[in-house]
């Protein structure tokens, strides 16, 4: 029986669409970058969309507060280190599996000034929507699997999983994206 029925369904759907990446991961690189982003404001766990399509709602989010403790525990995630890496505000968690192939660094990365059209990757593949957000998957600059949710034309959330087996990385990235999505504007 799955621990998270909704996340399991999303993961199963994503496995059917495929995701991969065999490059070596780099520990401190965000999934993709191309332009500078807006500086974050005071973080809050959730925000509502702003009229006019600006990114104030996303800028108000704290990437480490988007998934509650029960959600993180259901995925086996520990830690929750907040960082700014390149153009992203990042919250990194660790999943320690029984083997190296089952161990990952899993992150939520918020890009306040970069949308889905700004992804720098050659293997971007569309996914079914996650909640109300359009989704794509690609291999990030770290070599891990990324599930990216479009928030506006100029902002997005990337859920990444780096390390271990690439197919399992995509499962973990998809599950984290599904849990973080309800906090998005």
TrEMBL record:
Residues 22-60 are annotated as: Disordered. PROSITE patterns: PROKAR_LIPOPROTEIN. It holds the Pfam family DUF3558. Residues 27-41 have a biased composition (Low complexity). This is DUF3558 domain-containing protein.
């Amino acid at each position: 029986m799955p621990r998270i029925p909704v996340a399991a369904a999303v993961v199963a759907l994503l496995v059917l669409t495929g995701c991969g990446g065999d490059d070596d991961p780099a520990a401190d690189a965000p999934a993709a970058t191309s332009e500078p982003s807006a500086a974050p404001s005071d973080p809050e766990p959730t925000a509502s969309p702003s009229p006019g399509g600006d990114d104030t709602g996303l800028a108000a989010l704290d990437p480490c507060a988007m998934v509650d403790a029960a959600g993180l525990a259901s995925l086996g995630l520990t830690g929750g280190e907040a960082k700014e890496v390149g153009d992203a505000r990042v919250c990194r968690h660790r999943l320690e599996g029984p083997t190296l192939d089952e161990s990952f660094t899993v992150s939520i990365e918020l890009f306040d000034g970069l949308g889905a059209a700004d992804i720098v990757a050659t293997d971007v593949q569309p996914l079914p929507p996650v909640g109300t957000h359009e989704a794509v998957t690609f291999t990030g600059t770290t070599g891990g699997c990324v599930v990216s949710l479009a928030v506006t034309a100029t902002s997005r959330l990337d859920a990444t999983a780096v390390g271990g087996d690439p197919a399992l990385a995509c499962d973990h990235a998809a599950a984290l994206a599904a849990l973080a999505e309800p906090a998005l504007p």
